[in-house]
């Protein structure tokens, strides 16, 4: 009797969970459930298209037209590889990149990297806040400085006071704001023959302007703060889930975790690349086609769209700037806080209460506060952003070399050292980044 009852209950449970057994057909796809399975990779990829990046892509399309979009096809596998490697470091060891460097390398090396990361991220925060404020002013009027304060304080407060699970959910939903650029592309008059040719046929010009643009794209898509953020978020997710342990201590389920990381990272980086391509094509179809090549910021791009592509394109482009800025600023400030906190072996993590990680949250707030303050100084945000990109480009090379060396050390990764195609793709990304920086140096010297 008991066995029959157990079997009957099991059948009833199967019928409840599987609508097809009840004759109701297949259950409709639930996008919220799919989004829930994605995590650090999706957020990292979306944060890559921050207002500063949008300015870079807009400028690329305005200056070079459709012929520059192939660069995003090139960078996609490289950025996906280096981000997957970063994520593996966090999941395998239970520490972010800085946490592993402080345990296995000289302190001076870490201090130099972290100092440059903090400076570059803070300048980037300032530029992003300025772009968001300009975009909001464009839509609603009012003083830009008030919007700088509003967005800066809101971003920091959300990181400090929101529940971690709710905060991550907010970041995931903010990634949808990037579809604004697909909407802008839809209303632009694109020459699709030229656009497809620009994607598939590389066009290279050996001059300072073209090489600088390529380096700017590389610096925007392959940035150190993204490495630190995704690795630290994998470690954070492992800490808050009581069922998980660092894979060096518990090997069970490693293959499943690596498959999840790869899927999450590929989706995030593909999303990032597709949005970047949409922005480049939109700028090529509007600004470049109209002979307007002097677009320097994302806010200028939004404003310039009105007479060329209409008010609707201007509005959705501007709203996209605000949405992606709200996503990127927490990543920029958070990655700096994780790097410094892990390097000092402080309690770190957005899942911790402010009292439990006061120093970590202090660094996060300081980075954002300086970024806010820079908008009230005579510092030219365009020049500041330019030097931020230079710092990021130069910093990326030693960080990537260090990362690639670290993932081959068994005292760091245990049996999960990175090998095969992923390892060589990581080194290819490093070599391309180093070549870009070298080319930029040559262009400056000539």
Q: What would you give as the CATH superfamily?
A: Amino acid/polyamine transporter I
Number of domains: 1
Low-confidence spans: 1-29
Please give the largest β-sheet: none
Q: Structural class per helix/strand content?
A: mainly alpha
Assess the beta-strand content as a share of residues.
under 5%
Number of helices: 20
Tell me the distance between the termini.
Answer: 89 Å
Overview of the molecule:
With 446 residues, the protein is mainly alpha-helical. The chain has one domain: Amino acid/polyamine transporter I (Up-down Bundle). The protein has 20 helices and no strands. It has helices at residues 2-17, 31-37, 40-48, 51-64, 70-93, 97-104, 107-140, 144-161, 164-174, 180-187, 192-200, 208-221, 224-240, 254-288, 298-309, 311-343, 358-374, 381-406, 410-413, 420-445. α8 (144-161) crosses α16 (311-343). It is globular. It starts with a helix and ends with a helix.
Essential attributes:
446 residues, mainly alpha, Amino acid/polyamine transporter I, globular, disordered N terminus
Set down the secondary structure blueprint:
Elements: H1 2-17, H2 31-37, H3 40-48, H4 51-64, H5 70-93, H6 97-104, H7 107-140, H8 144-161, H9 164-174, H10 180-187, H11 192-200, H12 208-221, H13 224-240, H14 254-288, H15 298-309, H16 311-343, H17 358-374, H18 381-406, H19 410-413, H20 420-445
Helix pairs in contact: 3-13, 3-14, 3-16, 4-12, 4-14, 4-15, 5-12, 5-13, 5-14, 5-20, 6-16, 7-8, 7-15, 7-16, 7-17, 7-18, 8-16, 8-17, 10-14, 10-16, 12-18, 12-20, 13-16, 15-16, 16-17, 18-20
């Amino acid at each position: 009797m008991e066995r029959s009852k157990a079997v009957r209950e099991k059948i009833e449970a199967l019928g409840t969970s599987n609508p097809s057994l009840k004759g109701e057909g297949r259950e409709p796809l639930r996008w919220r459930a799919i989004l829930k399975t994605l995590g650090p990779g999706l957020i990292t990829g979306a944060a890559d298209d921050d207002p500063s990046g949008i300015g870079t892509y807009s400028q690329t399309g305005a200056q070079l037209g459709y012929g520059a979009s192939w660069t995003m096809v090139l960078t996609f596998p490289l950025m996906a590889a280096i981000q997957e490697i970063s994520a593996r470091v966090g999941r395998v060891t239970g520490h972010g990149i800085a946490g592993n460097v402080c345990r296995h390398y000289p302190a001076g090396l870490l201090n130099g990297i972290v100092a440059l990361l903090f400076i570059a991220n803070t300048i980037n925060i300032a530029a992003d806040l300025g772009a968001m404020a300009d975009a909001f002013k464009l839509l609603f009027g009012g003083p830009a400085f008030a919007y700088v304060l509003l967005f800066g304080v809101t971003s920091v407060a959300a990181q400090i006071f929101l529940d971690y699970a709710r905060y991550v959910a907010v970041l995931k939903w903010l990634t949808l704001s990037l579809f604004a650029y697909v909407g802008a592309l839809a209303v632009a008059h694109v020459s699709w023959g030229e656009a497809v040719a620009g994607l598939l046929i590389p066009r290279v010009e050996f001059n300072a302007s073209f090489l600088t643009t390529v380096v700017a794209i590389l610096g925007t898509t392959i940035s150190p703060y993204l490495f630190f953020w995704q690795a630290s978020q994998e470690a954070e997710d492992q800490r808050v889930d009581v069922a998980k342990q660092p894979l060096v201590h518990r090997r069970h389920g490693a293959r499943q975790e690596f498959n999840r990381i790869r899927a999450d990272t590929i989706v995030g980086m593909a999303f990032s690349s597709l949005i970047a391509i949409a922005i480049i094509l939109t700028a090529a179809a509007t600004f470049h086609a109209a002979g307007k090549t002097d677009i320097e910021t994302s806010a200028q791009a939004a404003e310039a769209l009105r007479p060329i592509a209409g008010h609707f394109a201007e509005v959705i482009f501007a709203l996209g700037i605000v949405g992606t800025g709200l996503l990127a600023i927490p990543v920029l400030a958070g990655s700096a806080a994780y790097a410094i906190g892990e390097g000092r072996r402080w309690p770190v993590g957005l899942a911790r209460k402010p009292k439990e990680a006061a120093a970590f949250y202090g660094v996060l707030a300081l980075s954002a506060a300086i970024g806010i303050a820079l908008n009230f100084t005579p510092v030219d945000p365009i020049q500041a952003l330019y030097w931020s990109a230079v710092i990021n480009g130069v910093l990326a090379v030693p960080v990537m070399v260090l990362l690639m060396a670290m993932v081959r050390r068994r005292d760091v990764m245990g049996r999960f050292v990175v090998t095969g195609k992923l390892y060589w793709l990581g080194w290819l990304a490093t070599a391309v980044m180093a070549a870009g920086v070298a080319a930029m140096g040559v262009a400056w010297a000539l």
